[in-house]
Q: What sequence folds into this?
C-alpha cells in the first residue's frame, strides 16, 4: 500500500504524549499515529472491508510465556 505524505502540526504537549506512548508500545511516533488513527477509524465503522489493516506488533506476553 502506498503511503501518503503530508505535514502534520501538533501541539508540543500532545507530541510529547504520543512520543512516550509510542515508546511504550515499541513503535515510532509516525507508526503509532497511524495505528491510533486506524483503530479510531475501525471503531467508527469507517475502515472498509477492502482495507487491509496494518500489521500490529505481536501480542504482549506471547514471548514471555515461552520461557
A:
Amino acid at each position: 500500500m502506498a503511503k501518503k505524505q503530508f505535514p502534520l502540526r501538533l501541539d508540543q504537549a500532545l507530541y510529547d504524549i504520543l512520543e512516550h506512548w509510542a515508546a511504550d508500545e515499541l513503535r515510532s511516533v509516525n507508526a503509532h499515529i497511524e495505528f491510533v488513527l486506524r483503530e479510531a477509524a475501525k471503531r467508527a465503522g469507517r475502515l472498509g472491508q477492502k482495507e487491509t489493516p496494518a500489521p500490529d506488533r505481536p501480542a504482549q506476553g506471547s514471548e514471555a510465556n515461552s520461557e
